[in-house]
Write a structure and sequence with these properties.
With 67 residues, the chain is mainly alpha-helical. The protein has one domain. It is built from three helices and no strands. Helix 1 runs parallel beside helix 3 and helix 2 packs across helix 3. The longest helix has 19 residues. The radius of gyration is 12 Å and the shape is elongated.
Amino acid sequence: MICRERVGELVECARRPSEPGPELRAHLAGCTNCRNRWEAEKDLAAALESCGIERRPGASRTGVARL
């Protein structure tokens, strides 16, 4: 699977929050770009939560949080 197809999984895992499944973890172990994106998504989700914006599964993938 190419990285572009993994971005949605990374975003959803960070928003839930939940850990990636075994297949995605294996991909992260070998892909620096996706591993960096995973860390950035977790940091972003934590920052939004600290501002009072809760994490929601299925939130818009446009980058706009639903309040």
